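pinging the channel bc i need a second pair of eyes. not urgent but kinda urgent?? the chain im working w is below, pasted from the shared doc
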Amino acid sequence: MNPNFTFSVKVRFIEIVDEEVHDLLQPTGAYGHHSLNVITNEWEGPMVNGVNWIPMTNQHQLADFFVNGTKHRTNRANEFGKLNEKAAAIFSIEITQITDNPASGDTNVLVSKLDILDLPGCEILNEDPEAVRVKQGSTLNKGMLALNNLTKELATNPHGDYVFYDGSILTQLMKDVLGGNSLTVGLFTLQYGDAIGSTLAMRAFKKF
């Protein structure tokens, strides 16, 4: 083992419901959750203020916190139906590697992050956005509608000088996922018995 090399691993697990951010690893407040704010950091960009990052010491802890956080996901409903069908979740793993160079006295720090996102069904993208806002309010589907616009913009103008990530909390927090030097992989599920409708919903991501 290199005595000049150290590393650390930490995780967070958040859920976005109706443009509110909840910490799934520290569920407190109304309905078992405390709403957090998204701020823009000069160095890190959009980030969740006050979110609980938990240090990991082994892979079993990683799995346990993912399972426990999933149990805390919303099970509430409002006049538009079950909120879990409209909620997005982001499980983030951050690895910090530190290497000291005794000869030069320099210290190299490398920070890597893996974001695993669970997005709500994108069938809503088949409908007219204005009709959706009238029927279900302006914030419930804001994340998916903004993500639809964002992926279209990135697909048609991938090298543009400006990309609008501020359409929703979800797209703000996906800036690292969809931009920069990140690698993004998408897994899509077709709704059983509705292959045509599900395929239409995926067209928003087809060119991206």
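so The radius of gyration is 19 Å. and The domain at 120-208 is CATH 1.20.58 (Methane Monooxygenase Hydroxylase; Chain G, domain 1). — does that match what u expected or am i reading it wrong
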